[in-house]
Amino acid sequence: LRKRIYEINREAARFFYKNLVSSPEGRKGLEYFAARGLKPETIKKYGLGYAPEKWNALLLHLKNLGFSEYEALSANLCRRSQKTNGIFDSFRNRVMFPIIDLRGNIIAFGGRVLDDSLPKYINSSDTPVFKKSRNLFSLNFAKNSSSKRLILAEGYMDVIALNQAGFENTVATLGTALTQEQSRIMSNYAKEVIIAYDSDSAGQNAAHKAINLLGNVGITVRVLKMNGAKDPDEFIKKFGADRFRRLIERSDGAVNFELEKCRQGLDIASDTGKVEYLKRASAMLSDISNPMERDVYISKVAHECDVSPEVIKADISLRLKKIKYAEKKNEWQAVKNIQMIRDNINPDAGNHLKQSRAEEMILVYIMRNPDKLEQIRELLPPDKFVTAFNRRIYDCLCRKLENSQSFSVSLMSDEFNNDEMGRITGLGIKNKSIDISFQTVLDCVEVLNNYSAENSQKKELSDDELIKLQQRLINTKQED
Questions:
Q1: Is the pLDDT of residue 134 over 70?
Q2: What is the DSSP string of 135-161?
Q3: For residue 53, which of 93, 142, 199, 215 is within the disulfide window of CB 3.0 to 4.6 Å?
C-alpha cells in the first residue's frame, strides 16, 4: 500500500501541475502565484498546482490511471461523504503545494484558497507514508545547505519566497505548531535555527514555544525582528534579499528575544514595573543551564534595572532549589506510588523505601563482588533484611555463592518464578550506572541494623512504658 500511495501522490501532483499551467480554470491559480511574486521556474521547482472546483475531478483522473477508490482514500486525496456515502476530492478550487520527503517522494499536499473563505489552508491528514509531526516543508531542498543553519518560517509561501530569493535553507511546519520530533529532525541538519515567524502576537508566541523545543535538542536559536513587514515574504518584497540577509546576521539570540517578551506591557522606569520585570526575567534566566551564559544576562538585566546582580542571582538560586525539591518530591512520590500500587513482587518496599533501597544496593554489590559475601554476611544476617523478597534473594545468594567465586542470575532460577527473576535481573540494570563501593555497603548495613534495633526496642517496651512514652511525646509537643 505504501508504494501505491507514493505512486498515486505522484500522479495527483502531475494532475494539479498540469491544471495550473495548461487549463483555463487554472489561470486564476497562476495569477495568484504571479501576484505573490513567484517566477515560472520556482513554480516548477516546487511542483505547485491547482485543484479544480469539480467535486470529483481528481478521483475520475486517478481511476482512469488504474487506481482504486480505496487507494485514493488511503492517500487522503479523497474522502467519503457521511451523508451520501459518495466519494469526493479532498482538495477543490485551491492552489496546491506538494510535500516531498528527503528521498524525493511526494507524501502529502497542502492546499490554499484563492479568496478569503475559511479554512485558508487545508493539509493532508496522516497516512501510512505521512506524519505531520515528523516532516518539514522544503527540507528536501534545505538539507543540501552547507551552512549548518536553517531558517524556520511559518508558512509555505514564506518558504518559497525565501527560497526564490536565495535562502534555500528555509523550512516550515505543516499547518501545526513545531513539535519535538521536528526539532530533532532539524538538529540532524543544523546547529543553528533562525526563527522567522510572523511579527504578530500569534507568531511571537509560537516563536517562544519553538525556542524551548529547539533548545531541548541542543540547537542555538536566534529570532528575526522584522520591523516594517508582517512576514518574510512581505519583507523580501519591500526591502530585498540583501537587507533580509543583514537582518539574519544581526538577529538577536533567543535569550534577548525572551527578555524583550518579559518587558512587554511594563514600565520598567516605575518601581512596580521594575519588580515585575525582575521576577519574569529571573524565572526565564533560571532555565539557562550554562552558568557563564546565565551570568552574562544577569548582568544585563541588573544594569537595565539598576540593581545588584547578586539580588538576581539569589532569586534564581532560590527558584532552582524549589524546582529541585519539587522534582525530588515528585520522583519519590512516583517511586512510592509504583511500589505501593503495582509492586506485587516486593509489596513491603512501599512502606520501607529507605530500607528496601539499602537492601538493593547490598544485593547488587554482592552480585558484582561475590568474593565479598563472607565479609557482609558476618555483619548482616538475613533476618536483618526488612522486605521479604529481598531477604529471599540475600538468603539464596548466601547459599548459592558459598562455594562459588562468580555470580550468574541463572544460579537462582530454581528458587524464583519468571516475574521474580525479571525483578532480580532488573536490579542490575537499574543500578548499572551507579558505582557502589564497600563503604556504601557498610552504610547500607548500618541502615538495616539501625532499623532492626529501633524495631526491637519498640517490641520490648511494655504496655505501660508505651503509654508513658506517648504521654512524654505529647507533653514535648505542647511545650514546643
A1: yes
A2: --BTHHHHTT-SSSEEEEESSHHHHHH
A3: 93
